[in-house]
């Protein structure tokens, strides 16, 4: 995504950050592209402010006000922010997931996150925090995303295939701390995951989860301050 953005907008400086190095670094990075290893919870001491900050699949942070304040402080007046996060609540309206290991995993994930003081519904908490910080024009979008290629149509099939692959990559890293908090032993967890791995890509199981987008949200107050009273929104 980072590289695509830099290529599509050659006159825009595009900076990505993560705690970890990139798994797939582009062999030839465009000149307007930069990636830094950085802890987003540390102070943000960028050389300049940004017009747009996109936070994607960062996961729950205990103090959202602090993160949103950092975003506010690092946006140019009139800048935009967008959050994209999963609500990891597996829905299966036709009941095909009933009694499966994937459903069991989803229920225990919810319990474990609660035990850790978090919730699968944390993306819903951003809107009031953004409003309180002064952002306006906050748009919320929900997208149902299939967990495998079970639903008809080219687009849903493509998304479903990617999602099934994604699940195989993330199930273990997501589960270890959360199931650990519930007192599961590593062997209990790996026995459950073994079953979940078998089910995830099997299209006889129909299910989806929700991708929640908050934003873009517009920093109107700062825009007014910059251009005198009564500045119009975009
Ligand atoms: C689900 S991945 C999403 C990666 C990427 N943002 C994307 O959308 O493809 C979550 C990422 O958050 C990163 N992360 C977790 N805590 C972080 C922190 N405090 N500062 C920066 N990155 C962090 C992890 O290293 C991991 O790469």
Order of strands, main sheet, comes to: 3-4-6-5
The largest β sheet comes out as: 4 strands, mixed
Helix/sheet category: alpha/beta
What are the distinct ligands in this entry? S-adenosylmethionine
Number of helices: 7
Rg (C-alpha, Å): 20 Å
Order of helices and strands: HEEEHEHHEHHEH
The helix content is 25-40%
CATH topology: Rossmann fold
Protein name: Methyltransferase
InterPro entries: SAM-dependent_MTases_sf
Pfam family, one: Methyltransf_23
Describe this entry's structure for a reader.
- With 234 residues, the protein is of the alpha/beta class.
- The chain has one domain (39-227): 3-Layer(aba) Sandwich (Rossmann fold).
- 39% of the residues lie in helices and 22% in strands.
- The chain contains seven helices and six strands, in the order H-E-E-E-H-E-H-H-E-H-H-E-H.
- The chain has a four-stranded mixed sheet with strand order 3-4-6-5, with helices on both faces. The protein has a two-stranded parallel ribbon with strand order 1-2.
- The model is unreliable at 229-234 (pLDDT under 50).
- Bound molecules: S-adenosylmethionine.
- S-adenosylmethionine binds next to loops.
